[in-house]
Specification:
The complex is a heterodimer of chains A (339) and B (361). With 339 residues, chain A is α/β, with parallel strands linked by helices. Chain A is built from 12 helices and 12 strands. Classes of the chains: A alpha/beta (339), B alpha/beta (361).
Chain lengths: 339, 361
């Protein structure tokens, strides 16, 4: 087996807030192999974005406490000096965020922003960097890259801007690409284009991808493995087929049930009501003891639910049934995954 | 009593583009809504879908005259909305409510829930005394699934889903017949979206409401709508029963749109044939001649640039209409004199104000 590009071990993030300490990420473990796509899913406030901001050293040091280890090709990101981290962002990790308008500098041309990134990490002349920038824009499918390189972000549509952000993220051929809700602000037709693009570039360069999203449809299309987050913890992980088709955690089941399923038959011309998860996620300043999901859980009933935190345990019956050799784990006292 | 509650004919909303000079001359127009024909039947949910910038929000606003139409007519329950005076317009706004996208921006942070929900009652002079109004606010909050005891709280004390319920309660205060929900679930989490979708469906059945459900989320629209209308670049290009449009779309744009919607089944996703459209939506300031989808259409052929397609019956389902020459060339020939330039340049797209910007206001 090849060494993972990224190995996250017991990642914890606490933020100091006026309302007390927020336990935003509470012990996260995962690995991303070369060419592999790991999707991190969860609702807002589940800690999915903060967990990657922490990896990249983008949380404010004054209020955030980050512990654990995050090995990028064997080197711990969390122990790096700011200078070393700056060297790693680019050739090590490329980042794509949700809103392409706010992640680009509005007063610089697209070309300037690409050249800046290239010249920060590679000893090349301005002309060579510019030529590379044009190449990259062509690679991400921007029409007329020779002219596009001199355009400002406001002259491009949302989909085009996100392509530029991806071009910047890929300009130093990173080992790992982190996409945080990268297609959420885009229309479905443009989303399909961007996903195709990332998949193509990933297979060409063998990049590991961490794809953060709340959209389980997108996950089904791009992910090899899925990690479901709730209350700052991983409540279920496994292959995309295991997690989406055979979910073991009541929260994952709830999420899938809340989506309109168009394959479902109509009852007298109308679709049945959607399943809902009652209540709202707990605030990270006041997480429940025991299983983080128990206050909203429809199947709670185990004596340990309210007092003891369930470990992330193998869902044996399910894995065996499908003959899958890849682990499928869930953290719950209830349901088929329970010990 | 007619079956059609609201009907638009040739509805247009054009925004002038002015030059930057001192004279501010009008140099063109953004055709946000450009000749929409649409009927909304009493008691139905009509889903309106399309990509950002296609004019769906502007259409919703124009139906209630929250933006002034620049052409065409809107008839609400037999009255011509475009000809109403200020006083009659107020009555229209009582009978037609609106639920907005962002429950964080559409509620006044300095007013309590009770003040927000009772404002329409005061404006329309309903439930005269203060005590009756308080009772009515309690009723409305209960109707949308909130505890009446929260009436004295402020919006910041609520989650997104709860705020959207407050927005729905406000929209229902005047006992409307018609509700426009403009991306009402777009800013909510999946589990909360389901709660609000269920609520809207329950309210509709309970109160006999007619709903216009505007959304870019095709799965949600297919779930709630009886009929679906698809918009592209300011025009309704396909409309029909939700099942027919959802499973047998007849216009290449609708087909591409539906094929791009990801579904949470890995097996289906791996095997699906996705129609990936090339390029971006042309600018509504430079609409292609003839069929406006032809510049991105994988099946465009000779008549497309020359004849502006009209909605015509398609497919086996009753009331399924599409504006597409693949089903027979029907429409208005393009006169060569007022021909619009072939396809926009990227620069045009950038200069034109985008609909998306206004949606977020």
């Amino acid at each position: 087996m090849t060494a993972p590009v990224l190995a996250v071990e017991d990642l914890r993030v606490q933020l100091r807030t006026p309302r007390g300490t927020a336990h935003v990420v509470n012990g996260l473990d995962y690995t991303v192999g070369p060419g592999e796509t790991v999707a991190v899913v969860g609702e807002s406030g589940s800690g999915k974005s903060v967990s990657v901001l922490a990896l990249m050293g983008l949380l404010p040091a004054r209020t955030a406490t980050v512990t654990g280890r995050a090995l990028l090709q064997g080197e711990d990101l969390l122990a790096m000096s700011p200078d070393r981290l700056r060297q790693v962002r680019g050739p090590g990790i490329g980042m794509v965020f949700q809103d392409p308008m706010t992640s680009l500098n509005p007063v610089l041309t697209v070309g300037r922003q690409l050249v800046e990134g290239i010249r920060a990490h590679q000893q090349v002349t301005r002309q060579a960097a510019r030529a590379r920038a044009v190449e990259l824009l062509a690679e991400v499918g921007l029409p007329d890259p020779q002219r596009a390189v001199d355009r400002y972000p406001h002259e491009l549509s949302g989909g085009m801007r996100q392509r530029v952000v991806i071009a910047i993220a890929l300009s130093n051929s990173p080992a790992l690409l982190v996409a945080d809700e990268a297609t959420t602000a885009l229309d479905v037709t443009v989303q399909a284009q961007i996903i195709d693009l990332v998949e193509r570039l990933q297979s060409e360069h063998g990049t590991g991808v961490v794809w953060i999203t709340h959209d389980l449809g997108v996950v089904a299309g791009i992910a090899d493995r899925v990690l479901v987050m709730y209350g700052g913890r991983c409540v279920e992980d496994g292959t995309v087929d295991d997690v989406l088709e055979r979910p073991a955690h009541p929260y994952t089941r709830g999420l899938l049930g809340a989506l309109p399923d168009l394959a479902e038959p109509l009852s007298d011309g109308r679709r049945p009501d959607l399943a809902t998860i009652p209540g709202v996620p707990p605030p990270p300043t006041d997480l429940p003891a025991g299983c983080v999901f128990w206050p909203r859980c429809p199947v709670r009933g185990d004596a340990r639910c309210e007092t003891e935190q369930p470990p992330l345990a193998f869902v044996e019956s399910l894995s065996r049934a499908t003959g899958s050799s890849l682990p499928h784990r869930a953290a719950t006292w209830c349901g088929e995954g329970a010990r | 009593m007619s079956d059609v509650l609201l009907s638009a004919r040739g509805l247009e909303v054009h925004f002038p583009i002015r030059s930057g000079g001192a004279l501010r001359r009008t140099t063109g127009a953004v055709r946000a809504v450009d000749g929409v024909d649409l009927d909304i039947h009493r008691g139905e949910t009509l889903g309106l879908v399309g990509e950002s910038g296609c004019g769906k929000s502007t259409l919703g606003n124009a139906l209630l005259r929250l933006v002034e139409p620049t052409g065409g007519t809107v008839t609400f329950d037999g009255t011509d909305v475009t000809a109403l005076g200020r006083r009659q317009l107020r009555e229209l706004r009582r009978r037609a409510g609106m639920v907005f996208q962002d429950p964080f921006a559409s509620l006044d942070p300095r007013r309590t829930v009770a003040q927000t929900v009772s404002e329409p009652l005061e404006v329309h002079g309903l439930h005269g005394g203060r005590r009756e109004r308080t009772a009515r606010v309690g009723e409305l909050l209960e109707l949308v699934g909130l505890d009446p005891a929260v009436a004295d709280r402020y919006p910041h004390e609520f989650s997104g889903g709860q705020r959207q319920r407050v927005g729905i309660a406000r929209a229902l205060a005047g006992e409307p017949d018609f509700l426009v929900c403009d991306e009402a679930i777009a800013s909510l989490d999946v589990s909360v979206q389901a709660q609000v979708l269920n609520l809207l469906r329950r309210l509709q059945q309970q109160l006999g409401l007619t709903l216009l459900f505007i959304s870019h989320d095709l799965s949600a629209v297919r779930h709630v709508a009886d009929r679906i209308a698809v918009m592209y670049l300011g025009r309704v290009v396909e409309v029909g029963p939700a099942e027919a449009v959802g499973t047998h779309p007849q216009m290449p744009y609708t087909q591409a749109l539906l094929s791009a919607v990801p579904v949470p089944h890995p097996e289906l996703e791996r095997n699906r044939q996705r129609i990936v459209l090339r390029g971006d939506v042309p600018s509504p300031a430079a609409v292609p001649s003839g069929c406006r989808f032809r510049t991105r259409c994988p099946q465009a052929f000779e008549p497309c640039p020359d004849v502006d397609p009209a909605l015509q019956p398609v497919g086996p389902a009753d009331g399924h209409l599409a504006a597409c020459h693949l089903h027979g060339v029907v429409g208005t020939p393009v006169s060569r004199e007022d021909d619009v330039p072939e396809g926009p340049t990227p620069g045009d797209a950038a200069r034109a104000p985008r609909d998306a910007g206004r949606e977020r206001r």
